[in-house]
Design goal:
Elements lengths: L4 E2 L1 E8 L3 E4 H7 L6 H6 L3 E4 L6 H16 L8 E4 L11 H8 L8 E4 L6 H14 L5 E8 L19 E8 L6 E9 L7 E2 L13 H7 L3 E2 L1 H23 L8 E4 L4 H10 L11 H4 L6 H11 L8 E8 L3 E8 L1
Parallel strand pairs: 5-6, 5-7, 12-13
Antiparallel strand pairs: 1-9, 2-8, 3-4, 7-8, 9-14, 10-11, 13-14
Helix pairs in contact: 3-4, 7-8
């Protein structure tokens, strides 16, 4: 069993777009009876970014909240890690854009991205914890910011109503041993690479391939049934392994904070793991699937409303495109 790493979450924050899109808009768009979208996706409303709201601007707002909650100054950390599934642009990295949005232009504070799709936050937390443990950094900020709406096909009733936009950040530091990262685990089954994807934005589909081909490749594509089948098959074994590494069964956790993939996926986790009522942090009804931002958003809300308290052992888990399963267990 890996040794625990002293790690303290000193503060957290979230930022949401101004606009909320409710289900009536989707019911009308898809010419469905009132209440169809709510029954179809199990979501009431979701935040959607408007003109002028960018991944970097939302991230910066969330970071400022996390710094204020931690009692840190604006530059009282050594590294800024952007943990997003979809960056604001191809170059430079999104972390640099957030860095400038925070007014850190000439600070010299390091900034880089970690991309593990919807699992970017727990993967970044694991990587940052290791860097803190070896003395590379004293303090770090991790932020996940997503504008999923930018790539959605608004004529697809299966995906368009499922996603929401937003950002969440945490300020972390090497702890005194009372707060710890107890275990981390990541597995990938690349048989699922085509189940959930955006083909443009890299070098595979290029503007020289034609504007229509590029436009089509820039839209989010998902075979929801295939994703669900593979995740349902693999997730129980993954969580069993993570639990073994941490030395605690899921039902004995103080809270389990999952990626808010879908209402159906959350019900499956609750049922398969036989979790007591209230242990699973479920925010999807009012936030939708915020991709990489969903886990830290749910974490922040659970801390803010007192569901997670100092000394609690919690797990952050989920699945992401690839297909991957990942998570960490923390003593908060």
């Amino acid at each position: 069993m890996p040794n625990p790493i002293p790690l303290r979450i000193a503060g957290s924050g979230i930022a949401l777009p101004r606009l909320r899109r409710d289900n009536d808009w989707f019911d009308q768009r898809f010419a469905r009876p009132a209440g169809w979208t709510a029954r179809h996706v199990g979501i009431g409303s979701r935040p959607i970014a408007s003109e002028g709201e960018t991944s970097a601007s939302l991230a910066a707002d969330a970071v400022r909240q996390a710094l204020a909650a931690a009692g840190w100054q604006d530059d009282d950390f050594e590294v800024l890690i952007s943990a997003c599934g979809v960056g604001q642009q191809a170059l430079p990295c999104t972390a640099a854009l957030i860095h400038r949005q925070l007014g850190l232009d000439h600070s010299g504070i390091g900034a880089f991205d970690i991309n593990a799709s919807c699992l970017s936050f727990p993967v970044a937390l694991d990587m940052a914890a290791s860097a803190l443990a070896c003395g590379r950094y004293r303090r770090a900020v991790i932020v996940s910011s997503e504008i999923a709406s930018a790539g959605l096909n608004w004529d697809d009733p299966d995906t368009a109503p499922l996603f929401g936009d937003g950002a969440a950040a945490v300020a972390i530091e090497a702890g005194d041993g009372r707060s710890q990262l107890l275990a981390a685990h990541l597995q990938t089954w690349s048989a699922g690479v085509e189940h959930c994807r955006v083909r443009a934005g890299g070098t595979a589909v290029r503007i020289d391939d034609g504007i229509e081909a590029y436009r089509a490749a820039a839209r989010f594509e998902m075979d929801g049934a295939a994703v669900y089948r593979l995740a349902a098959q693999k997730l129980p074994g993954f969580i069993a392994e993570l639990s073994t590494r941490a030395g605690i069964e899921p039902a004995r956790l103080g809270a389990l904070v999952p990626h808010q993939a879908s209402a159906k996926a959350l019900k499956h986790i609750q049922r398969v793991l036989r979790l007591p009522p209230g242990l699973l942090v479920n925010i999807i009804e009012h936030y939708g699937n915020q991709m990489s931002a969903s886990i830290p958003t749910a974490l922040h809300l659970a801390i803010s409303d007192g569901r997670i308290r100092r000394g609690d052992t919690i797990a952050l888990v989920g699945t992401g495109a690839g297909l991957s399963a990942g998570g960490v267990v923390l003593r908060y």
